[in-house]
Amino acid sequence: MPAPGTIVIALGGNAVAPPGERPTISNQFRHSRASLVPIVDLAAAGWQIVLVHGNGPQVGDELARNEIAADQVEPLPLGVLVAGTAGWMGYMIQQSLQNALERAGVQRSVVTMITQTLCHADDPDLRTPSKPVGHKLDPVREARLVARGIPVRDGRRLAPSPRPIGIVERDMVRNLVGAGYIVIAGGGGGPPVYRDPKLGLEGIDAVADKDRVAAILGREIGAQALLILTNVKAVYRAFGTPAQEAIRRLTLAQAEHLLAGKELGIGSMRPKVEAAAEFVRTGGERAVIAQLEDGLAALRGEAGTLHEYQARDILRRHGIPVPPGEVATTPAEARAIAERLGGKVVVKAQVHACGRGKAGGVKLAEGADAAKAAASAILGMTIKGLTVQKVLIAPAAEIASESYVGIIVDRASQRPVLMVSPAGGIEIEEVAAKTPDKIHRLAIDPRYGLLPHQALTLGFKLYNDVKQARAAADIMQKLYGAVYAVGASLAEINPLVTTPDGTLQALDAKIAIDDNELERRPDIAARRDVSAEAPEEVAARNAGLTFIKLEGNVGCCVNGAGLA
Predict the structure, then answer these.
(1) How far is residue 149's CA from residue 157's CA, in Å, rounded to a whole number?
(2) How far is residue 348's CA from residue 399's CA, in Å, rounded to a whole number?
(3) Tens digits of per-residue pLDDT, 83-133?
(4) Which of 487, 406, 489, 412 is closest to 450 using CA atoms?
(5) What residues contact residue 558 under an 8 Å CB cut-off, 6+ apart?
(6) % of the chain surpassing 70 pLDDT
(7) Which residues of the chain have pLDDT under 50?
(8) How far is residue 215's CA from residue 278's CA, in Å, rounded to a whole number?
(9) Helix, strand, coil % (nearest 5) of the chain?
């Protein structure tokens, strides 16, 4: 069977040294091992792989060591420090990946190359440092750097970051990949260099963006796919505003339109979108930006999502307190349901799309007639290309507080991860981007499941009241049971609300089922609503094909593994 193709994977330095944790070598080795699971899966599937890794936290630490020891040893310039981090991080990743491949029975060898990144010596970005490096500084260190004229933004040191134009050792990388080696290259973006007419290659004291380097390397070796792994679940339009919206798919023209505006700002997401667009523009077949644990699933286009009313029913059957609610397909049915429920109700569109509220798919209604009018307005509307054919009618809740509880299958650690946050009622990706300290995580050992004391500890992260913390812990354990019962890759309660009398209720729910689980669970497969899916994808599935609907009249028809 021929190999699926060549893929360049860009792995962030924060995946190895996450914020909020001491970046000891033992911790970085531990995170390296955890982050490589998707790469082992790709290697087992036959992909030819190049891995480019970041070094932002690590090279910042090297600069700090330089400064601390400046009166004892000669400091090293930034370009040399980039090469040094590429060496020791490459050793760490190479060893961890080789061990993981051997444990998985995958016969592939790994090699690390220190590659040099070509840049223009007169690049204007060299005069305006913009790339954050290192960990967040304490006020004293920040003040010392600023006093020395070193730029700092949002508590992090800034380094010059010229735009890469090529990779010096591209032919060697292409040859090694063609021979079946997994190549670690472009470490930390690779030490930047320029060509001097007389001296040849000369170093630049700067840091190249690893995502842009990955895109250029992919182009130069003829890769079919670019996978950029990050700590955010999606690219957002109008990020940080009330109109914020996750972007799931973009054509090249749409990406370029987005980049031409100001919605992405100058933060870390803009270079990723620029890199993805550049890769596709110059011949790459597709680029994927995904959270680390979702990378392989995003590449394959996996997972099926249940409607909210179906997810609520599953939670209810597992003993989780869920308000009553019924589904209507006509305005008359909506009126009858609202009349049975009595009082104020909420009418919610049932489609597999986020942003229902912003699209007008969620409305409050005072009484049965208002519910009928709301259902009439929502039924038949189009949200993210999907026509609303059902609405959920549920009592409008009185809310005292909102929290988040979710479980996701983490492909990196190969364990379900329980996440809770006192910031509920908004997308958890927004919480992760703006206030990551409000998210608390627990990797669950599947041998023992979620233990009562573990759940109670997280319960107290949400509530100070002992009774409420215990109720939350009970809900977490029941949610864990539901995940295993239905073969879910994701289960969320958002929000988990407290009512004025102090009781807890799961007000909204989302469950995504791994497609591989559907054959083993025909009762769950029977819940699949083909009317909420793209017709082309339904027809392809019925013919035994995997088809992914893209924008316009373009689609991707792939083999049974879901790998293009």
Answers:
(1) 11
(2) 18
(3) 999 999 999 999 999 998 998 888 999 999 999 999 999 999 999 998 889
(4) 406
(5) 301, 546, 547, 548, 564
(6) 85
(7) 1-3, 301-304, 560-563
(8) 7
(9) 40, 25, 40
Known catalytic membership, residue 404: yes
Neighbours of 266 (CB within 10 A): 10
Output the six-digit token pair for 241: 């505003």
Distance CA(430)–CA(428), nearest Å, equals: 5
Q: In this structure, what token pair is assigned to residue 515?
A: 């497609």
- pLDDT reported for residue 521: 63
Q: Are 164 and 189 in contact (CB under 8 A)?
A: yes
pLDDT, residue 233, reads 62
Residue 138: Cβ-neighbour burial (10 angstroms; 0-12, 13-18, 19+): exposed
- Give the model's pLDDT for residue 232: 67
Q: What is the C-alpha separation between 355 and 359, in angstroms, rounded?
A: 6
**Token pair for 85:** 């981090």
Cα separation of 253 and 259, whole Å? Answer: 10
Q: Is-contact 115 83, C-beta < 8 A?
A: no
What's 444-499 look like in SS3?
A: CCCCCCCCHHHHHHHHHHHCCCHHHHHHHHHHHHHHHHHHHHHCEEEEEEEEEEEC
User: pLDDT of 140-169, one tens digit each?
Assistant: 989 999 998 899 998 899 999 999 999 999
pLDDT at residue number 525: 63
Q: Determine which one of 181, 309, 404, 463 is catalytic.
A: 404
Environment class of residue 426 by beta-carbon count within 10 Å: exposed (0-12), middle (13-18) or buried (19+)?
middle
- DSSP type of residue 121: T
Say if residues 514 and 303 touch (Cβ distance below 8 Å).
yes
Please enumerate in sequence order all residues whose Cβ is within 8 A of that of 497, keeping only pairs 6 or more positions apart, or say none: 397, 399, 400, 401, 402, 403, 424, 504, 505, 507
183: nearest Cα among 109, 118, 116, 85: 109
- Segment (H or E) for 313: helix 308-317
What span, in angstroms and rounded, lies between the C-alpha atoms of 264 and 268? 9
What the block records as the tokens of 517 is 């689980």
- Tally the C-alpha atoms within 13 A of residue 282's C-alpha that lie toward its C-beta: 19
Residue 319 vs residues 253, 280, 312: alpha-carbon distances, Å: 48, 48, 11
Q: Which two tokens stand for residue 115?
A: 């590659």
Beta carbons within 10 angstroms of residue 320's beta carbon: 24
Query: Which residue in this structure is represented by tokens 């054509």?
Result: 251
pLDDT at residue number 234: 66
| Rounded Cα–Cα distance for residues 82 and 64 (Å) | 13
- How far is it, in rounded angstroms, from Cα 148 to Cα 155? 15
Beta bridge partners of 488: 513
- Residue 492 annotated to the active site: yes
Nearest to 368 by CA among 406, 395, 387, 404: 395
pLDDT for res 302: 43
Residues in the chain: 564
